[in-house]
Design a protein that fits this description.
Length: about 260
């Protein structure tokens, strides 16, 4: 039985770190863009977007919509990415963490008074029960995405022996999905400092918990792409360089950048 190489495990961790940071930045850029449309004079940081001018709070909806669209875009791109490549792995993580942001926003609307959706829809006449419907839709959506991700992760196998049995499928999913899903948010903390009282850094350890569902779902997943020959994979220098670039961008945004400049 072949075992997941340390190089590819490192690739998955790096890809997940990049996805954690980029999806947050893209979400906040969506808020900033909506703020521009509503003349709110947005200032975007590496964690949050603040508005300097009063106005329509629907601007806060920009982040959720942008995250959902980003998840769909990367989901569409995934089948066309090069098989079992570090780039394809990054596309998968980008899609998952984008959907996680959007669906979690929907869940928060029901339970957190100052959540993005709560602020965006505070001045809108919403029928009773919509908050419960959105929360349920968000929870179901995240569950379905996490389950569907099992086949995608298992498709990165090098040889049939890595995913031949339920036990091996769970082991493989744990190495390529669960470990990166739990470790990457912790490694991304330096990208989001200083926290400036937002509380986002404190929430980071929880954002990859969906990978637990993915790993459990892998046990009974049988629709798996198998390579025709054994494929060896090494650590991706390109991913490491990309992570450094993302770190520089995050640090640049940390003090706050007006949008548009």
């Amino acid at each position: 039985v072949m075992r997941t190489s340390w190089g590819f495990l490192a690739n998955s961790v790096l890809a997940a770190v990049i996805a954690v940071v980029l999806t947050r930045l893209i979400e906040q850029f969506g808020v900033a863009l909506a703020g521009v449309l509503f003349d709110r004079q947005p200032v975007m940081t590496n964690i949050v977007t603040e508005f300097r001018a009063p106005g329509n709070d629907l601007a806060y909806l920009g982040g959720t919509v942008t995250a959902l669209v980003t998840g769909i875009v990367f989901l569409i791109l995934f089948p066309g990415a090069r098989d079992r490549s570090a780039g394809r792995l990054t596309v998968l993580w980008m899609s998952l963490f984008s959907f996680r942001i959007a669906f979690y926003d929907m869940i928060q609307y029901r339970y957190v008074e100052d959540s993005a959706l709560a602020k965006a829809l505070a001045g809108v006449d919403i029928p009773a029960g919509i908050d419960t419907i959105l929360a349920a839709a968000g929870a179901v959506g995240m569950l379905l995405v996490a389950i569907a991700a099992a086949a995608a992760f298992l498709g990165f196998n090098r040889h049939r022996s890595e995913v031949a049995t339920p036990k091996e499928r769970m082991r493989f999913a744990a190495s390529i999905a669960l470990i990166p899903g739990l470790v990457a948010p912790l490694l991304s903390v330096p990208f989001f400092l200083p926290d400036a009282g937002s509380g986002y850094v404190a929430s980071l350890p929880l954002i990859g918990l969906f990978s637990i569902v993915t790993t459990i779902a892998a046990r009974n997943t049988t629709n798996i792409s198998i390579p025709l020959a054994i494929e060896e994979r090494s650590f991706s220098i390109g991913l490491a360089v990309a992570a450094v670039i993302v770190f520089v961008v995050a640090r640049f945004l940390a003090p706050g950048v007006p949008i548009p400049p």
